[in-house]
Automatic annotation (TrEMBL):
The chain crosses the membrane at residues 12-36, 72-94, 106-126, 155-180, 201-226, 261-285. It comes from Lacibacterium aquatile. Belongs to the binding-protein-dependent transport system permease family. This is Carbohydrate ABC transporter permease. Residues 69-282 form the ABC transmembrane type-1 domain. Keywords: Cell membrane, Membrane, Transmembrane, Transmembrane helix, Transport. It holds the Pfam family BPD_transp_1. Coiled coil: none annotated. Gene3D superfamilies: MetI-like.
Amino acid sequence: MARTKRKHQMAASVAMLPAFVTALLIYVVCTGWTIWVSFTNSRLLPSSQFVGLAQYERLFANERWQISFGNLFVFGGCFLAISLILGLLMAIMIDQRVRFENLLRAVFLYPYAMSFVVTGLVWQWFLNPELGLQKLMRGLGWESFTFDWLVNPDFVVFTLVIAAVWHASGLVMAIMLAGLRGVDSEIWKAAKIDGIPAWRVYVSIVLPMLGSVFATAIVLMSITVVKLYDLVVAMTNGGPGNESEAPAKFVMDYLFERGNIGLATAASTIMLITVLVVLAPYLYFKYGRHNRGAHA
């Protein structure tokens, strides 16, 4: 019996070997190579001339990168806050066992099935002052109505937030709803007997129980923030000027259009560090506390 079990384990290990080697070569080796190139004087082609932190100094002195990196935090903060709140509210609404629950879940989740390119094109049309909402409202008689955020340098990044929230809040709803449906029904029965309002049960009992659910949603949304590219290209292409630039678009432009591999890999390394900073608390919450509790 033990021999059969070892054979099955060995067969499973052999079957997983190609995937492991592929992951090792593509992810670990390529990531290491990218980080190494960011410390070289590479331009159109990779170079082995080591220049230390020179590329990073050029990167953070680059005005376009400064705008891109600033937009990352403005967009990320607004996107995370709004999508989490909106997704949670939609999940709580559906958790009330409303009529047409399946239809509502499909409607809320449908935008996430669309690509960011399609989402960007749709919202670009809708927010275009000459074609969309502004023209519609003025055609209905509100001649002074103005909504020109798409071409306003001070507000253009918030149009990306609107489109991204519309796209991703349904996923947050699905994650939150799964967590809410996992709450013991006895809690609700006890609260009903004690006459505790539903909102108080959610705030004081249910939501504190959903820490891992919130962590999962935050990590997924944060990774979406860091790798934001398609939506920017489809909606604004970084404009007006460079006011809606994103780090991922900066990397792609310098890698393929401007032929500056060193600067592009330095920017991508900073993006990797940003992702690791986001993942570290989640990994600690999920594994670190569990391991410490096991050894206690």
